[in-house]
Amino acid sequence: MRYHPHTAADVQEMLAAAGAPSVDALFRSIPEPLRLARALDVPPALDEISLSRELGRLAARNEVSHPPFVGAGCYPHHVPPAVDQLLLRGEFFTAYTPYQPEISQGTLQALFEWQTFVCLLTGLEVSNASLYDGATATAEAALMATRITGRRRIVVSAAVHPEWRKVLASYLRSTHDEIVTIPFGADGRTDLDALRRSVDGAAAVIVGWPNFLGVLDALPEAAALAREAGALTIAATAEAVALGLIQPPGALGADVAAGSFQSFGNPLSFGGPAPGYLAIREAHVRQMPGRVCGATVDRQGRRGFALTLSTREQHIRREKATSNVCTNAGLCALASTIHLGLLGRRGLAELARLNFDRARLLRDAMAEVGVRPVFDGPFFNELALDVGDAEEVVARLARRGLAAGVPLSRWYPDAPWSRGALLSVATELHDPELIRLFARAVRP
Amino acid sequence: MSNPTGWKPSVGASPSAAAGAAGAGEPPGLGGAAPGLAHEEPLLFEHGSRGRCGVSLPAPVGPAPAAEIPAALLRGPIDGLPELSELEVVRHFTRLSTWNHGIDTGLYPLGSCTMKYNPRSSEAFARLPGFAGLHPLAPATHVQGALELMYRLERALSEIAGMSATSLSPAAGAHGELTGLMVIRAWHQSRGNPRRKVLIPDTAHGTNPASAALNGYTCVELASGPDGRLHPETVAAAMDEDVAAIMVTNPNTLGIFESHIAEIAAIVHGRGGLVYGDGANMNALLGVARPGDLGFDVIQYNLHKTFATPHGGGGPGAGPVAVTGALAPFLPLPMVVEDGPGFRLVTDPAERPGSVGKIHGFWGNFGMFVRAWAYLRELGPEGLRATAELAVLNAAYVRAGLSGAYHLPYPTDSLHEVVFDDQAQKAAGITTMDVAKRLIDHGFHPPTIYFPLVVHGALMIEPTETESKEALDAFIGAMRAIADEARTDPDRLRAAPLRAFRSRLDETRAARRPVLRWTPGMQAG
What we know:
The complex is a heterodimer of chains A (444) and B (525).
Chain A: H1 8-18, H2 48-60, H3 81-87, H4 90-93, H5 105-122, E1 126-127, H6 134-149, E2 153-157, H7 162-173, E3 178-182, H8 192-198, E4 202-208, H9 219-228, E5 232-237, E6 256-260, E7 276-280, E8 293-297, E9 303-307, H10 314-317, H11 330-368, E10 372-373, E11 382-386, H12 390-399, E12 406-407, E13 421-425, H13 432-442
Parallel strand pairs in A: 2-3, 2-4, 4-5, 5-6
Antiparallel strand pairs in A: 1-7, 6-7, 8-9, 10-11, 11-13, 12-13
Helix pairs in contact in A: 3-11, 5-11, 6-7, 11-13
Chain B: H1 19-22, H2 86-98, H3 120-126, H4 129-132, H5 144-161, E1 165-167, H6 173-190, E2 197-201, H7 207-214, E3 218-222, H8 232-238, E4 243-249, H9 261-270, E5 274-278, H10 291-294, E6 298-300, H11 303-306, E7 321-323, E8 335-339, E9 342-346, H12 366-402, E10 418-420, H13 432-442, E11 448-449, E12 459-461, H14 469-488, H15 490-495, H16 507-512
Parallel strand pairs in B: 2-3, 2-4, 4-5, 5-6
Antiparallel strand pairs in B: 1-7, 6-7, 8-9, 10-12, 11-12
Helix pairs in contact in B: 3-12, 5-12, 6-7, 12-14, 13-14
């Protein structure tokens, strides 16, 4: 076993040093009847060549020959090879939580840079060192809002990612906090009249930015209503590339920004892992969940970084902590940080503009075959298209190796528009030729 | 605007004050640490030049966004973002990486974190385009390989835990605890009363009470006995019909097997409660004993610990939750099931009405499943058991090697990790913190310190099975040398680390005046 360095002689010497007659004797504290008397019933061991073949077989059973036209919370983007090659430096990926700052400055400075990126992109003041994913970050944001306001009701737009709303419901269920869902209109934007009727007494209002339908929602208007009612506004973002083109949540009145930076540096990987982020106004920093990195100095006065504000956290506060989060998505956050470092000021603006551009190519190519958008609100790189029968289109194109999008009927089965609505994305990975091919395949 | 903070790295300035130079006169540390060249590196935001860029993208062809998006919602290029070439970024992160200690650098005996070797082949497999490039909502016919992998991993994890079914969704150990307690609550609820209390021993990880609180439970702390174990009479005295569950880590955070576990489980079950297992220490039990056979109803794995997926400077993790048949209907969605010749994700609550719902945006941290499955397949049943045996052997060897030099607060047998404290160093005014920092100068990552809380000044050492006898000998040698140094040159210990890229950081200042992001002109702390 290549991961076990022990020779038989090592084992004997070590047992002798430990004063144990056998390896079995080391386990004498486990009462005999509680021990497993047989071998585990798991598949037999494989050598590396056989293992490569087996994992290769499984990977080959997945169809990935074209970039998927599917976004819906997980976005196909180009990851420059430099990102992964840096990520694979063992000092990064084989380290853990930087409990010993003197030998963790690499991780810590990168986290400080991540926190800065999150703040710059969201227009808010403070961020933590990442959370599990966009869904749990949004749920943590809602819990934080209940702590800050002392209120228990969360108002959420139906245009927020439906899977994220499910996670929110699971997180709030046991504490009996109430969730009120607000519908959206024909433009794919949150119904502000409905929001006005529900916002009183709410801890938070959650709006997608862009929302699940790809639409730039009525975030500024919703935030104004929330503020009047003393509720916090949480802007939930799954496609963070949009923040390179559209105004940041903080500039539009949001108090909290939560979501995923998967689009920066992280592969699709069947939906995980990807870094969740949370950004807030400075006034609420003591209520923020999760780890946070801060700047300080060492004994020689040189700048350095350390995890800080740990009195919020579970290892000090235990049941009174702001959250139970411990391990987060550090390496994924590093991938985002490297990618954002490469993109920088100009690259991010270019990437966002290009995504906007490709989604127009998609819309126009679809218009040529008679397929129109379902919603008329402005969109970034993702839109719902009325293809007639979305499930049929997905199944038909799947046979040709294309992932066409997701039928919105899976989440909005009762909406009058739902049968035809196919949610599709176009990014820098979808070149114009592929987009035209896709449109022609939808309506041959 | 290169370097707007005005902060200048003090390369080579005042050699007597620079940490690296202060250690320069010493022989190499017992872990091989020697003084060497390190590079200062400003923040990404502090260098570069206007107009530089590190990516190559095609040009847009259509009209500008202003044609469609209201001007009030549009944003220009974001000031403050870096402007760097690709080489500058590569050099930046390469330099940063050298300031880190990882498992690849040297022994990393961080107790309870199971810092074992992360196989390179697992990294290669996770990057296969068929896995890395797969969308979670791709058509069912496109994802059969991924579902098969998840199905087989779920079956194997259930077998290893001695449980009926496993949810792969949780993204970390604490997320698994949260999920497991949701399941427990839902099971009680289905019987009419969710109950209000959760019993937690004083040796538990802090995540346990925090996870219980997130589920609306009140925590009752149980004192462990003088032997470091939880005793049945303690549990019996606290147990009543309002207790939903007890959370037990086994082996516990002292590395000690809770040998009364079967009796404790019987007491809890007898009053209608459930037994939750924190599986952070599963590395000690692989193939030796199964939580399901010990009386546990729920246990979470930490794939990033036991199954060697990389911790990555704080994650990502994966915290699958395995449960008994009675609790399986309450597991979160999705579950993967066999479906004709293929596999299918169960996502519709109508199919699993008891489910606690969803706890992750998609299906869990799939990239970690690939790595864990590759690791599990390479080990096989014998390799898994050997993993536990050698992990325990390594810990026993370190324990024997350090006895006499450090005080062992609990002489009870321990398994995969051992907890010492700083009592023997007290007379010299040396603390656990000093010992930990001096280990850095030898080239080792310190153990977990000041945890568990039941031990004052704890040094919690978990060597893991992937370390060789020579590596352990070097570590033992360094620890003993430090114990000697505590008597002969305590000031040197208090000044440590002398060889690290930074000396001790002012953590009080970091907390008192938080600087949590770069701003133009920022000062540290």
